[in-house]
C-alpha cells in the first residue's frame, strides 16, 4: 500500500492566512496542525470546535480554490449513509447557514455526514460526491 500512497497527490497545505480567508466570519479559529497530518490521506479537512458544536470543512473546489464551510454539527449520532463518502457509518446532521435571496433572511442547508472526518476521507473514492455536497451546502 505504501508504494501506491507515494503516488497520491496530497491535500495542498494552506497557509494560516488562506485558512482565515476561507473562514472570514469566524473570529477565533483554531485550525488543526497541518504538519501533524499526512495530507495524502485527505481530500478535505474537517475539524471540530467541541465547545460550540461547530464543524469546519476546508476543501479545494473544482477550480482548485480553497473554500471553507462552517456548520452546526448535531450531537446525535446515527448509523446511516454519509453524503460525502456514500458509505454507511456513524453520521450526524451538519447544517450550514447561508444568506437567502431576500435581504435579511437566511437559509439552513445540510445533510448527514460522517462524524469522523479522517475515516470519511479514507472511505472517499470519488470527489464528485464531495463537490456536490459542498456546492449544495455553500450555495
Notable traits:
EF-G-binding_C, single chain, globular, 6 strands, alpha+beta, 6-stranded antiparallel sheet, 139 residues, Elongation factor G-binding protein C-terminal treble-clef zinc-finger domain-containing protein, 4 helices
Concise overview:
This protein is an alpha+beta fold and 139 residues long. Helices cover 22% and strands 33% of the residues.
Task: Give a written overview of the molecule.
Strands 1, 2, 3, 4, 5 and 6 form a six-stranded antiparallel β-sheet that branches. The protein has helices at 2-5, 16-22, 117-123, 127-138, and strands spanning 44-49, 54-60, 66-73, 78-81, 88-99, 106-114. The relative contact order is 0.16. It is of the alpha+beta class. Strand 5 and strand 6 form a beta hairpin. It has one domain. It contains four helices and six strands, in the order H-H-E-E-E-E-E-E-H-H. The radius of gyration is 15 Å and the shape is globular. This is Elongation factor G-binding protein C-terminal treble-clef zinc-finger domain-containing protein. Residues 24-130 form the Elongation factor G-binding protein C-terminal treble-clef zinc-finger domain. It holds the Pfam family FBP_C.
Amino acid at each position: 500500500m505504501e508504494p501506491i500512497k507515494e503516488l497520491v497527490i496530497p491535500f495542498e497545505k494552506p497557509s494560516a492566512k488562506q485558512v482565515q480567508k476561507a473562514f472570514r466570519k469566524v473570529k477565533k479559529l483554531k485550525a488543526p496542525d497541518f504538519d501533524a497530518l499526512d495530507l495524502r490521506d485527505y481530500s478535505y479537512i474537517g475539524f471540530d470546535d467541541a465547545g460550540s458544536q461547530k464543524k469546519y470543512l476546508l476543501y479545494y473546489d473544482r477550480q482548485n480554490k480553497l473554500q471553507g464551510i462552517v456548520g452546526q454539527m448535531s450531537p446525535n449520532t446515527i448509523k446511516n449513509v454519509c453524503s460525502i463518502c456514500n458509505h454507511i457509518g456513524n453520521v450526524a446532521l451538519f447544517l450550514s447557514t447561508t444568506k437567502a435571496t431576500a435581504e435579511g433572511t437566511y437559509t439552513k442547508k445540510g445533510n448527514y455526514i460522517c462524524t469522523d472526518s479522517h475515516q470519511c476521507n479514507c472511505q472517499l473514492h470519488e470527489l464528485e460526491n464531495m463537490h456536490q455536497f459542498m456546492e449544495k451546502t455553500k450555495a
